[in-house]
Amino acid sequence: MDAEVFDEFPSPADELAGRTIAVIGYGNQGHAQAQNLRDSGCEVLVGNRDDEFRAAAQDAGFEVVTIEDAARRAQIMLLLIPDEVQPEVFRDQIAPGLQDGDTIVVASGYNVHFGLLDIADTVDIVMVAPRMIGEGVRDHYERRESVPCLVSVEHDASGRARGTALAVASGIGVLRGAVSSSVREEVALDLFSEQAIWPSIMAIFQAGYDVLANAGFSDDAILDELYLSGEPAEILGRVSRVGMIGQLGLHSKTSQYGQLTNLLRSGAFTDQMRERFAGVLNDQILSGAFSQDWSGSDTEPDADARIAALRKKAEATSLSVAERAVLDRWS
Ligand code: NDP
Fold first, then answer.
1. pTM of this prediction exceeds 0.95
2. Which atom of ligand 1 sits closest to the CA of residue 25?
3. ipTM, 2 decimals?
């Protein structure tokens, strides 16, 4: 299914004239988007707590106010604080200052899709979700290279939400090729990648390590071959430019023959993964079960404690133990 792709954008300075943009949070995305929007001719202020991020915004020449003041003064709010704190900050510090016709801009679909922000019907909701880290958003802007981005209009109370979304996208450095999407699609793809693809890649390395270690090969040689040499990063870099099969030409003929014969023989394994991945997508992500588990309970210990407990278990696996020992030996 092909998506609509936006290649033409209104001028941010014209489309957003007379409206103040509040960048809420001057972190990874916030520092980049605030500077890009300012350099694009928009009126930008920063809302941040009183700490080192506030000082960084002040050093960059921004007027920095409390989040409450930013929400009262601005007409367009970019929510650029971590997803897990947005519901509470929104409820207590942003919602009371919103006016009819204001716009909430999210950079991730999570909280809007799962209904974790209680946004009044009179407020526009759009998503401008760059597909790169904040440093990349700033670097691309400075080099006049287009920032890859998903854009959507989720609620258009004012009748001008689409123009606002495209102008904000342009202001943060999207020059062409913004993909029309939705918070549902953004969150599904993002969580799927995190919950289906990457854990499976880690599990494949784990299984590979166990088989090779049981066969008596050394941890140093195994882990060097599997990933500590950095070869997979180089291969993935090439994949991003010429595709999975396209990059095979870089490998020896022996390697290509071995990779292709085994790829074409892996139908049963792929079928098993398809079934497992469909479960992750439907039963875990789209059903809301993951969001309920992660964001739905006030009785769970805080996010850092939950992650620390899981990390402790992951660090006890045979691969993790071997990896630490090898990295220590090599350092
Ligand atoms: P960061 O973790 O970099 O956000 C840090 C900012 O949030 C700081 O200004 C920090 O201020 C503030 N903050 C943190 N906790 C609180 C709190 N409890 N109350 C008030 N302010 C708080 O966020 P990101 O830039 O990574 O993410 C922002 C949004 O962008 C998210 O929706 C994310 O999903 C999305 N996104 C992120 C990408 C990325 O590469 N990181 C890529 C694309 C989208 P303080 O100093 O006060 O803690």
1. no
2. 9
3. 0.97
